[in-house]
Design a protein that fits this description.
Elements lengths: L2 H10 L4 E4 L2 E4 H14 L7 H33 L2 E8 L5 H9 L7 E4 L6 H4 L5 H4 L8 E5 L8 H5 L4 H20 L2 E9 L2 H13 L9 H6 L3 H15 L6 E5 L3 H14 L19 E3 H15 L5
Parallel strand pairs: 3-5, 3-6, 4-5, 6-7
Antiparallel strand pairs: 1-2, 7-8
Length: 313
């Protein structure tokens, strides 16, 4: 990272302060206070709120070396005029949004875009299905991150009846060739599916109901997500079975642990681009307990169905 990039990174960091007793401390001051208390044997007396803040601070610090690598990756894409698309898919409350925020936190805003399209307009409903997504595709040197993508047609729409059976079938037939052409013409395509358990999703929904800072995230679709769990599991299986290809494979991110999901998603993204590592000593190997290939996920789901008579997760 150059000095100017480092300065830009530093400028983008939002100051964080926490009330500790009568003091308002920054993260660094809090760390120093904690280390001092720990050294004196008094650290165990910290409040749960402070301990939680310390843990979160440590997790955010652990991401920074990989966030620096993402800047280096971005520089490579810009220099080579390569295009990159990253799809973030998964059930509601699976951690997609939080991961996107961490991935892009220090990246050059001029060379990436986050795309989260709403329901189609009447005009878009008369167009080729992929047309509104193609309009958002990257130029050379750019990264586009889709917070949900064309795979809405494979997951949300059929479950809630937002598309017809024929529209669903046409999509499933056409998407493989669409992605194959995209990759053949030089676009780096990364397809991430965030997989959360039913109990953890329920816990996150309950938190949204009671937390005024998260209530805006709760939608009518979210409310029905638990009730339609089995339907979503079936369409997830069908999607992975039919659209996990050599040209455009799926990568499953186990996301019950948000920090590990974010960290390992970054590793998957970085490993998809042949850039020169900023720090070759970093561990770029994804955790096999967190990252699973699409084909392996299909095998595990099929084995689960044979053992228990139905899909579970």
């Amino acid at each position: 990272m150059t000095d100017s990039q480092a300065e830009t990174t530093a400028d983008n960091v939002e100051p964080f302060k926490l009330q500790v007793g009568d003091e308002l401390l920054t993260q660094d001051e809090l760390v120093q206070k904690y280390l001092s208390l720990k050294k004196s044997g008094a650290g165990s007396g910290l409040s749960p709120k402070v301990k939680k803040a310390m843990r979160k601070y440590g997790q955010e610090e652990a991401l920074k070396p990989y966030q620096a690598e993402l800047i280096q990756m971005q520089n490579y894409l810009e220099q080579t005029h390569k295009k990159m698309i990253i799809l973030f898919e998964g059930r509601d409350a699976s951690g997609k949004g939080g991961t996107i925020r961490r991935v892009t936190r220090y990246m050059n805003e001029k060379h990436y875009r986050i795309v989260a399209l709403g329901k189609p307009t009447e005009e878009q409903r008369t167009q080729w299905f992929f047309q509104k997504y193609v309009a958002q595709f990257p130029a050379g040197g750019e990264v586009v991150l889709f917070d949900r993508s064309w795979y809405n047609r494979a997951m949300v729409e059929p479950v809630f009846g937002f598309c017809t059976p024929d529209e669903y079938k046409n999509f499933m037939k056409g998407v493989v060739g669409f992605e194959k052409d995209l990759v053949r013409q030089g676009t780096i395509l990364v397809k991430l599916y965030f997989s959360v358990t039913k109990d953890e999703q329920k816990r996150r929904f309950n938190r949204r109901k009671t937390d005024p800072l998260r209530q805006w995230k709760l939608s009518e679709v979210d409310v029905q997500a638990q009730e339609r769990w089995d339907e979503f599991t079936q369409v997830k299986y069908d999607m992975l079975k039919k659209t996990n290809t050599t040209a455009a494979p799926w990568t499953i991110i186990r996301s019950n642990d948000k920090h590990q999901a974010r960290l390992n998603a970054m590793k998957v993204i970085l490993n998809a681009v042949p850039y020169e590592r900023l720090n070759p000593e970093l561990d770029f190997v994804p955790d096999p307990d967190i990252v699973v290939s699409g084909s392996r996920e299909v095998e595990q789901m099929e084995a689960e169905r044979l053992r228990k008579g139905k899909f579970i997760g």
